[in-house]
Amino acid sequence: MKDYPKIKTAIPGPKSQAIVARDEAWTSTCYIKEYPLVVERASGAMVEDVDGNRFLDFMAGIAVASTGHAHPAVVKAIQDAAARFLHICGSDFYYEGMAALAEKLAAIAPGPSKKRVFLSNSGTEAVEGAMKLARHATGRTDFIAFRGSFHGRTYGALSLTSSKVKQHARFGPLLPGVHHVPFGYCYRCDYGKTHPSCGLHCVGVLEKDLFARHVDPQDVAAIFVEPIQGEGGYVVPPQDYLPALRALCDRHGILLVCDEVQSGIGRTGRMFACDHAGVEPDIITVAKGLGSGMPIGAFIAKESISTWGSGAHGSTFGGNPVSCAAALATIDLVERQYLANAKKMGEILMAGARALADEFPVVGDVRGMGLMIGIEFVKDRATREPHPGLVEGLVQGAFRKGLLLLGAGKSALRLAPPLVIDEEDASTALDIIRAELRRLTV
Ligand SMILES: *Cc1c(COP(=O)(O)O)cnc(C)c1O
Questions:
Q1: Residue 14 CA to ligand 1 centre (angstroms)
Q2: Residue 295 CA: which ligand 1 atom is closest?
Q3: What is the DSSP letter of 426?
Q4: First and final CA of the chain: distance in angstroms?
Q5: Of 245, 248, 252, 258, which Cα lies nearest the Cα of 302?
Q6: What is the 3-class SS of 54-107, one letter each residue?
Q7: For the chain, what is the largest distance between any 2 Cα atoms, rounded to a whole number of angstroms?
Q8: Cα of 417 to ligand 1 centre, how many Å?
């Protein structure tokens, strides 16, 4: 028996309530704050709050704590690096960690082409850099992105983002020349079609409609795609989707950018989600799980498009030496242990989620790869009407029972635990979700 989940006070407890009150008095009003979790310490898949309540973490700090919270090998790497030096600026000077991390990311990225790596502090910065490189390399202005996508919050990335209207409201004008098209979201096909009989209509229309009537493909620098949409609802497109986008890009000299900020670094049971499709993107962006919680992001680009010269792009903090050490330790652990675990635990969780679908008619769709699993809820299986209230009730109720969850998209639950969970954690989570679904629906 594990010593978590273990709830011993009212939730939130008194110490948590006091900190929530201080935070709410002083922090910016834009923060979401899903529920009143106030963390004191965390280890592996366990998070303890300031009142001594222990939770099982199935959201990993938004899919970030890939090797679990405070993995000893990651903490040791951070401590050793911090004791040597904290900063020198990797854009202007050299240190081994930066060279080693770039070398490693280039080596693990899919495909045979030689790669070059830029290190950033976050996902949105990785996307911004990829947008700039795509324009620089192609001499073209425009971008294609997908409905439901999330690429970040800074102006370039925000212009690609299309998951929630409040992320755009009152922030315009955004970057011109960004064209949003429907994603390969088969459960809610914009064209009312069914895969595979659709023949990937949603990709075909780019050529037949967008390029025929609206945008000259010669003006398009890049297509930005999440191989599995994250914030948009953990949406897995069909297997032939990314290869079809790759072929489309190749026909028109458009760069294919896979935003793997959420799906990358082992979460799907392969190092990158696009590995499952056998596609080599021109640029891959990563961040979230890369540093096990330390702020670091990257974009990995084919050397053939690395047209820009010294000073064209840079960052004061990007590739911070302590973050590089965390990332190197993370990739090492993921390669040696957690890729295999993510695959194995993912199969167990998928089977469990499918069993929930058999039991509860409110489960409309179950989808995922490795430990990136979405369960979409509906009011009615026939109409597929979304059921956002149920997801909200489930997330809040599970929190009070000691399970940390997060919604995604309009009406989906995401299962994104640290890659270190074991079978007991998986069955504990499924039991709590089942109990909550009974409470909310039966
Ligand atoms: C979270 C996310 C981003 C933005 O990352 P930040 O570190 O929050 O800036 C970009 N793309 C995807 C796919 C993400 O999930």
A1: 33
A2: 7
A3: H
A4: 29
A5: 258
A6: EEEECCHHHHCCCCCECCHHHHHHHHHHHHHCCCCCCCCCCCHHHHHHHHHHHH
A7: 63
A8: 17
CA 150 to ligand 1 center in whole angstroms: 7
Dist CA 372 CA 283 (whole Å): 22
Q: 373 C-alpha vs ligand 1 centroid, how far in Å?
A: 17
Q: Enumerate domains of the chain plus CATH numbers.
A: 73-334 (3.40.640.10)
C-alpha span between 91 and 312 (Å, rounded): 11
- Among the listed residues 355, 268, 36, 287, the one whose alpha carbon sits nearest the alpha carbon of residue 151: 287
Report the C-alpha gap between 350 and 367 in whole angstroms.
Answer: 8
How are beta strands 297-302 and 283-286 bridged, if at all? Answer: antiparallel
Q: Find out whether the beta carbon of 260 lies less than 6 Å from any atom of ligand 1.
A: no
Q: Is the full-model pTM beyond 0.90?
A: yes
Report pLDDT digits (tens) over 179-222.
999 999 999 999 999 999 999 999 999 999 999 999 999 999 99
pLDDT digits (tens, 9 = 90+) for 313-361: 999 999 999 999 999 999 999 999 999 999 999 999 999 999 999 999 9
Residue carrying the six token digits 């700039």: 132
Ligand 1 atom, smallest distance to 287 CA: 7
Instruction: Please return the burial class of 138, using the count of CB atoms within 10 Å of its CB with bins 0-12, 13-18 and 19+.
Output: buried
